[in-house]
């Protein structure tokens, strides 16, 4: 997956770490969707422990037990004071929501921190809260849920999961993004990416589609513009996206073009209105009907009654999405009063009619921010559970030039998490993904307080920019986002750096970063020479403006001010041929220390993080112990019921009756009965060690019976296998001995010039096999005589055991196979003839070839004539 140029650096740094499983999280106000990205696993939504694809975004306590998902949602009726839903809406908030959606509303402390009370805090939570049960911040409650999400992922991946890609509303501020990051860090999770929710839906939309070619620089070609209309539980968000394709050849001779799909975010807008407002409208209608029928107005002040009414309102709204009327039925609403009635869709739409325009505001504002009109839009993609409500759909249709623009071509619940998973897979080397380049932008201006805008709204995420300042003892910079303070950065040790700085015109270069997650920070600061900066800013005038007017530079200017010797060497390589130049020395640069502090909304301090982390750890430890205890108890109970069934007279499995001695059955029956009684009286407070000890005591009595039964089933085949191994060993010994004898005879009778190969096996090797066979035969004969006498008595302990038979047979087999695999030796080379033998041979040859004297004389005469 190809990402934007500014994002590539981050990806390059992260890639070595993205090797294990990765979790994609789409955390919604009411429901959360998860997707696990791991090679070898299907690319799909992760199910929770109730096999649900959507997980309720809530954490609750049922007395001392922490619960999540649907169980936590259902617990709101019985335990409203310890039910904590809709945490997302309160991240980085310093005020209490006006919506009556919290069974136990949060409070603002004297320090201005939003805290949820937790009445009767469980004793195992440590450190204990100091006053009136105020324990959990919204960030901490989110961390609780993240622990559950991580547990689901690790159960599925069967390994530790520490890396996540999350979706967030593109309109989130720095404080909200930091709060989410803090929650992840509290659970030891590393956030690799924060991708906009609308962008994630667009990415899912683009995964299986192609788009027209378009040139951004020239404007040639076409692009498609789609609007993601995301209406969730508490907010409605509209994201305008452009989709187009570019193609390029990887090399001049290449005939294949590489296509890249581009997704650019053109505009985003949001408003806090969603499905909850419809739920509350239905709840108010039901409450009014109840009061009209019973006259009990105090129902509005009863937390349990409100929880029941809310639960019924959610059910009724779902029915009204598909029907014109729904029946209301609530048992024991208040003071054992049952209530039954009905409600129509028309009643709901009449109640919500004044707020219809609010659902359209994000759509209008997003198009305005993008600079496009409805005539430019190819489709409006509906996403979010609230878009299934007819009232919302009719509102959207009323503003569009044609109803045909409404698109329902993505999963309205899962598109965002699947898009985030696709994005995460692009960060993993194990996956080869479709080339998609994403360009997200900031929604708000980021400025220096009382100064210039450094990252204007619409800036690309992943950018860096630099500021130049005249050196002084200390430089303090205050940054704001949309006018709200976000951080203060102080550049330190400038005076000491100046003392060691020899280059002319020193300036302080501060590099700012708006990373791909939308998080702003000061990347670094350094003391550099202003000569390079002067050229980049257009001479002396530009340099002076940079010094005293806080002139901002682009990323490229910052890079020019920090160019090293390697870049200069590349430039010098382009000089004229046969002209040697010395590469210029590295530009002087002294790194400076930067101290940065978040301001505005107060994030968790180090101490608060420590306390929260310890509390979360104490809960995890307690739950781990409870899980182990529950497993030990279940194992003991299951074991007891199994033994009870086996001991009964009408048991189908007669193993204990046939293989247990009467005394053993009596002892075991009594122990089972006593353990059942103990479990009934002490199961709730018994610890894991005691539960395991009770099981061990039962196993000690049952174990000899189990051994007799198992041996009776396996001993016969084991004896057959052992005897076959002995037969194979004897056969090998006989054949190997014959071969050895034949090989020795061949060696003895072979001519000197053609020696025979020696035997394959040595005398010692065959003697070892013979010894093993004899020892095993003696062992077997001695025990078999006794075992045969015990065959009719199943309650007697065996003398021959399957394990020993298998072990001896395997050892014999392995020894024989090792010898058989041994390479046969080659025949030795014939010996070379000695010097005396060679002389004799030459003499014999000379005699055979000797000529008569007359012939020799004739030869001499001929030679003389020739001469």
Automatic annotation (TrEMBL):
Source organism phylogeny: Eukaryota, Fungi, Dikarya, Basidiomycota, Agaricomycotina
A GO molecular-function descriptor: ATP-dependent protein folding chaperone
GO cellular component labels: endoplasmic reticulum chaperone complex; endoplasmic reticulum lumen
GO biological process terms on file: endoplasmic reticulum unfolded protein response
Chain positions covered by the region annotation Disordered: 555-589, 818-867
Organism expressing this protein natively: Vanrija humicola
Designated name of the protein: Uncharacterized protein
Keyword set, alphabetical order: ATP-binding, Chaperone, Nucleotide-binding, Signal
UniProt cross-references to SUPFAM superfamilies, sorted A to Z: Actin-like ATPase domain, Heat shock protein 70kD (HSP70), C-terminal subdomain
Residue spans of biased composition, Basic and acidic residues class: 844-867
Annotated Acidic residues bias: 555-571
């Amino acid at each position: 997956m190809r990402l934007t140029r500014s994002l590539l650096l981050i990806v390059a740094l992260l890639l070595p770490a993205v090797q294990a499983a990765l979790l994609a999280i789409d955390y919604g106000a009411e429901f959360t969707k998860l997707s696990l990205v791991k090679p070898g696993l299907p690319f799909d939504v992760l199910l929770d422990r109730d096999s649900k694809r959507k997980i309720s975004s809530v954490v609750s306590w049922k007395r001392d037990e922490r619960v999540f998902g649907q169980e936590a949602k259902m617990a709101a009726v019985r335990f409203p004071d310890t039910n904590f839903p809709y945490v997302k809406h309160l991240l980085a908030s310093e005020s209490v929501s006006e919506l009556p959606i919290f069974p136990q509303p949060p409070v603002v402390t004297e320090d201005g921190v939003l805290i949820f009370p937790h009445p009767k805090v469980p004793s195992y939570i440590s450190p204990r809260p100091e006053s009136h049960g105020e324990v959990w911040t919204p960030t901490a409650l989110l961390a609780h849920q993240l622990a559950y999400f991580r547990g689901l992922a690790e159960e599925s991946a069967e390994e530790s999961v520490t890396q996540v890609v999350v979706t967030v509303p593109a309109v989130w501020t720095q404080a909200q993004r930091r709060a989410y990051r803090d929650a992840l860090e509290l659970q030891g999770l590393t956030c690799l990416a924060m991708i906009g929710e609308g962008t994630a839906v667009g990415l899912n939309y683009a995964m299986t589609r192609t788009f027209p070619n378009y040139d951004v620089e020239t404007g040639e070609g076409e692009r498609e513009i789609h609007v993601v209309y995301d209406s969730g539980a508490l907010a409605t968000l509209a994201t305008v996206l452009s989709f187009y394709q570019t193609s390029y050849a990887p090399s001049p001779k290449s005939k294949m073009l590489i296509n890249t799909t581009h997704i650019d975010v053109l505009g985003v807008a949001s408003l806090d209105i969603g499905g909850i407002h419809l739920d509350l409208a239905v709840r108010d209608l039901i409450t009014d009907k109840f009061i009209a029928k019973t006259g009990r107005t105090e129902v509005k002040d009863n937390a349990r009654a409100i929880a029941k009414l809310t639960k019924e309102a959610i059910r009724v709204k779902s029915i009204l999405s598909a029907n014109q009327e729904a029946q209301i039925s609530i048992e024991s609403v208040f003071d054992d009063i049952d209530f039954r009635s009905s409600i129509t869709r028309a009643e709901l739409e009449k109640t919500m009619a004044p707020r219809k325009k609010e659902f359209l505001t994000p759509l209008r504002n997003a198009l305005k921010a993008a600079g496009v009109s409805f005539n430019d839009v190819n489709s409006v993609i509906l996403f979010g559970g609230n878009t299934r409500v007819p009232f919302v759909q009719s509102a959207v249709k009323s503003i569009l030039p044609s109803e045909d623009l409404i698109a329902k071509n993505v999963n309205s619940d899962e598109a965002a998490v699947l898009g985030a998973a696709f994005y995460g897979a692009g960060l993993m080397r194990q996956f080869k993904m479709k080339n998609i380049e994403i360009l997200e932008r900031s929604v708000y201006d980021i400025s220096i307080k009382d100064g210039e805008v450094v990252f204007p709204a619409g800036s690309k995420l992943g950018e860096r920019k630099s500021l130049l300042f005249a050196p002084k003892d200390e430089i303090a910079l205050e940054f704001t986002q949309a006018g709200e303070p976000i951080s203060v950065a102080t550049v330190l040790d400038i005076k000491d750096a100046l003392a060691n700085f020899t280059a002319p015109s020193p300036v302080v270069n501060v590099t700012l970063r708006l990373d791909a997650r939308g998080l702003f920070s000061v990347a670094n600061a350094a003391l550099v020479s202003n000569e390079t900066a002067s050229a980049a800013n257009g001479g002396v005038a530009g340099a002076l403006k940079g010094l005293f007017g806080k002139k901002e530079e682009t990323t490229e200017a910052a890079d020019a001010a920090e160019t090293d010797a390697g870049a200069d060497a590349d430039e010098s390589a382009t000089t004229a041929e046969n002209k040697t130049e010395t590469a210029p020395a590295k530009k002087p640069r002294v790194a400076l220390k930067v101290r940065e502090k978040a301001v505005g909304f107060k994030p968790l301090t180090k101490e608060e993080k420590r306390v929260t982390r310890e509390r979360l750890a104490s809960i995890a430890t307690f739950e781990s112990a409870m899980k182990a205890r529950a497993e030990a108890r279940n194992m003991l109970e299951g074991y007891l019921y199994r033994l009870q069934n086996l001991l009964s007279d009408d048991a189908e499995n007669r193993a204990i009756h046939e293989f247990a001695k009467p005394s053993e059955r009596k002892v075991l029956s009594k122990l089972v009965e006593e353990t059942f009684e103990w479990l009934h009286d002490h199961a709730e407070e018994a610890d894991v060690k005691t539960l395991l000890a009770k099981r061990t005591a039962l196993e000690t009595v049952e174990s000899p019976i189990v051994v007799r039964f198992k041996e009776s089933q396996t001993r016969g085949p084991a004896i057959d296998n052992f005897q076959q191994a002995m037969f194979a060993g004897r056969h090998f010994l006989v054949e190997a001995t014959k071969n050895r004898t034949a090989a020795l005879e061949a060696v003895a009778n072979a001519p000197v010039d053609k020696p025979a190969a020696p035997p394959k096996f040595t005398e010692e090797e065959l003697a070892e096999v013979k010894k093993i066979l004899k020892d095993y035969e003696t062992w077997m004969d001695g025990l078999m005589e006794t075992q045969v006498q015990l065959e009719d008595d199943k309650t007697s302990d065996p003398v021959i055991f399957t394990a020993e038979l298998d072990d001896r047979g395997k050892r014999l087999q392995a020894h024989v196979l090792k010898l058989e695999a041994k390479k046969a030796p080659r025949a030795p080379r014939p010996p070379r003839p000695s010097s005396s033998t060679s002389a004799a041979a030459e003499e014999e040859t000379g005699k055979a070839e000797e000529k008569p004297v007359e012939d020799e004389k004739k030869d001499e005469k001929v030679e003389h004539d020739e001469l």
